[in-house]
Design a protein that fits this description.
single chain, about 60 residues, alpha+beta, three-stranded antiparallel sheet, globular, DNA-bd_dom_put_sf, HTH_17, Helix-turn-helix domain-containing protein
């Protein structure tokens, strides 16, 4: 697992941090863990799969 912070995911997807948090809340992007501040940590491969799927469906 290659961990990514919320900020890293937002940059990778080209969206705002709030959008990543919403995706996690709605279980569209599943967090694997939490950092000491309670922020979600995502697996890079899951984020890449989400981006590919979102692009196929018309965008993020």
């Amino acid at each position: 697992m290659t961990p990514m912070t919320t900020e890293q995911v937002a940059e990778f997807l080209g969206v705002k941090v709030e959008r990543v948090k919403r995706l996690a809340r709605e279980n569209l992007l599943v967090a694997k863990d939490q950092d000491p501040q309670g922020q979600p940590i995502f697996d890079k491969s899951d984020v890449e799969k989400y981006k590919e799927l979102a692009q196929r469906l018309g965008g993020i």
